[in-house]
Every structure is written in C-alpha cells, then in structure tokens.
Design a protein that fits this description.
The structure is a single chain. The chain is built from eight helices and 15 strands. By secondary structure, the chain is of the alpha+beta class. The strands form three sheets. Strands 11-14-13-12-8-9-10-15 form an eight-stranded antiparallel β-sheet. Strands 1-4-7-5-6 form a five-stranded antiparallel β-sheet. Strands 2-3 form a two-stranded antiparallel sheet. It has helices at residues 32-37, 43-48, 60-72, 93-99, 120-127, 129-136, 149-163, 189-193, and strands at residues 5-10, 14-15, 21-22, 78-84, 105-112, 118-119, 177-186, 196-208, 211-220, 223-230, 233-237, 244-253, 265-269, 275-279, 281-289. The protein has two domains: 5-186, no CATH class; 189-289. Helix 5 (120-127) packs across helix 6 (129-136). 29% of the residues are buried. The model has no long low-confidence stretch (mean pLDDT 87). The chain starts with a strand and ends with a strand.
C-alpha cells in the first residue's frame, strides 16, 4: 500500500455513458506506454523516462522529464498532484506547499495507486451505477470525484459491508485509500499543433448566427485532430488542393497584445502563407489515428 504524495501523469479525463466525466487517477496513467504501441517512440527512448514508474507517484524532476518527452512526440498528457490521506509515509511537505492549491483541487478519489492505479470510486459508482451509483452518484462533483473526505469514508464503509453480502468477484480486492487529486497541467490541443507540419483532410466554412465558423480535420503524422474556429474574419487562402500540406501551422494568442476579442487568435501558415485568418474562439480535439 502506497503512502505519501507526488505526481501522476495521465491522459485526459474519461467520459461515461451516464454523462459523468471522470478526472481521477484511472485515466490511462503513463501515456507514453501507448506511444510505443503506436510506433511513435522506441523502447530504448521509452526506457529512459520509464525506469521510475514502479514508485507509483514520481517526484518533481521525474515529472518534468516525463512531460518533456510527451511534448517532444506530441503525446497528450495531464499532470496530477496526488496526496494519500491518513498516512504518515514519505510525505514531501514542499510539494504540498507548492501544488495543493485550492484552485487546482479536483476532489477526492478512492482506490489503489499500487500496480494499476485502480479507482474503486470510478468502478463502483460511475462505471457500474447500479452497484453504488444510486447512493453516492449524487455526491460526485463536476470532476467525477468527492468534494469531502467524509464522503469517501462513508463510501468505503458501505463498500466493506456489501463485500460481505455480495458474491466475491463483485468488488476489487485489496485495501482502498482516499486521495486528494489536484490538476497541475494539461496539454492543450493548440499546443499539440504549434509549429507542426500538418495535412488538412477536411475544410468546411459555414455561417451560423451571423458568424463564420471554420472546421478543419487535419493530421500531424498519424494523429488526427478536429479543429473548430468561431467568429472567423480576414480569411486568406492562397490555394486549395487535396490534401493540403501546411509546413508551419501556428495559432497565435493575441490577448496579451490587447487586440479586440474578435481577433483573439491568428491562425496561419508561417512557412508558405497558404492560409491565414483571425478568430475569437478555438477548439482543438484529438480525433483518433490514421489507419
């Protein structure tokens, strides 16, 4: 059983059929493992940043090194700072002072860090709502976690009682712990496209409520992204052909320059000038992989 505090790098939150979005520990921890499967990095490259994973939570330097590799290969990531509650283990108070901020607090998860980063809360309440969802689903916050330690303690008490009444395989074995979860950083879709060579697969422009909306589906290597740009103005397209190759795709945030909101972002090809426009809002979402 792990005790203490540290960092966990995962992918983005998970959406479930009951409209609950879960932001806790069981959201594909250590996403670089998937990068090997997709052929984006070698096992030797992976080993250089994976030899510490068996410590369950990593320190600040290890987290920084891991995130650096994620950025280099365009791998989506989310950094969580986690504190196990009610233990007197190897607790780094400086991490608590620097990262346990109220504005970063997501909530309390319940599960195990040992081995597979299992969330009993996600499994028993969100994924299998008929099991404990009726009793505890209403206590989940917008991140699919508990706001109070007391809710976690009550959940564990009820779960332990049911373990003696229901078949043995109903619940995951082992001792479950309550963990405070904070989000330190999350890669943005914009960040994953900056300065990249992209292949535009689809381009659509439409008028909606008096504003131009542009939608692009594009590839960075094998990874596909779906982009939506709202309140688009000043569109300049040098040439259209399929598939369109943009060697230097860039989205600039003009907020710090004091530009008006309608020109919050500049979207451009800084290499060849094939495309350029301004827009007020940008959404970039990963959309699978090229077959």
């Amino acid at each position: 059983m792990f005790s203490g505090n540290g960092f966990l790098v995962t992918e983005g939150p998970s959406q479930y059929e009951n409209s609950v979005t879960y932001y806790g520990i069981e959201t594909n921890p250590w996403p670089l493992e998937e990068a090997i499967i997709r052929g984006e990095m070698s096992r030797e490259e992976f080993a250089a940043c994976d030899d510490f994973i068996d410590v369950y939570l990593i320190n600040e330097k290890q987290m920084t090194d891991y995130v650096k590799v994620c950025r280099e290969i365009n791998c989506r990531f989310r950094v969580l700072y986690v504190e196990v509650q009610g233990t007197q283990g190897d607790f780094d108070s400086s991490l608590h002072d620097n990262y346990a901020k109220e504005e970063a607090f997501l909530g309390y998860d319940v599960g195990q860090l040992d081995g597979d980063y299992y969330s009993a809360l996600m499994t028993d309440v969100i994924w299998r709502p008929k099991l404990l969802g009726d009793q505890f689903g209403g206590r989940l916050n917008q991140y699919g976690l508990f706001d109070r330690v007391e809710d976690g303690l009550e959940y564990l008490s009820v779960r332990e009682k049911l373990k003696g009444e229901l078949p043995d395989m109903t619940f995951e074995g082992g001792e479950m712990q309550i963990m405070a979860v904070y989000q330190v950083e999350e890669s943005s879709g914009i960040e994953q496209l900056q300065g990249k060579s992209v292949e535009v697969d689809e381009l659509m422009i439409k008028c909606q409520e008096g504003q131009l909306i542009m939608r692009l589906s594009l590839y960075v290597g094998r990874k596909r992204f779906h982009c939506t740009f709202r309140n688009v103005t000043g569109i300049s397209l040098d040439e259209l052909y399929y598939p369109m190759q943009i060697m230097g795709f860039e989205i600039l945030d003009n907020k710090k320059l004091g530009w008006e909101s309608a020109q919050r972002y500049t979207v451009r090809d800084y290499e060849d000038g094939k495309i350029r426009f301004w827009c007020e809002e940008v959404e970039v979402e990963p959309d699978g992989w090229r077959e």
